[in-house]
Amino acid sequence: MRKRLPAVHRPASPDDATARTATIEQVPDPVGTQLEALWEKEWHTTLLEAALEKVKAQVDPRQWQIFDLYVLKDWSVREVAKALSVSVGRVYLAKHRVGALVKKELKRLQRKME
Question: Does residue 6 lie in a domain region?
Answer without folding.
Answer: no
